[in-house]
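Researcher: Structure for this, please.
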Amino acid sequence: MMGKKIGTLIFIINFIIWGNLSLSWGAAKEPFKIGAVFSVTGAASFLGEPEKNTAKMIEDWINAAGGINGRPLQIIIEDTKSEESQAVLSVRKLLEKDKVLAIVGPSTTGESMA
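Model: Predicted structure, token format:
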């Protein structure tokens, strides 16, 4: 399951890189924002904590290499607390307030279905 999420995150990052090549020339160096909805606490924290750590590791790795076309990657992680209702609130926040380009997660089927 975690391998699939990492693959999805890498796909999204590649999409951003190739989809924005022409837009990045001369543009402000605003970060590419990706949302991540994980069960960092609660009953499914055994899934969410490693997912969070992996997302941060990927963010650090990409930014240490100069970002994406010179723009930093910012992964905004929301903790669902292993609750479906919190997953819905987290996704809304990422979309409406943080204006992320994509969202990875959540950690459990119940949260995904919510």
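Researcher: Any notable elements?
Model: The CA atoms of residues 95 and 105 lie 14 Å apart. The chain is about 55% helix and 15% strand.
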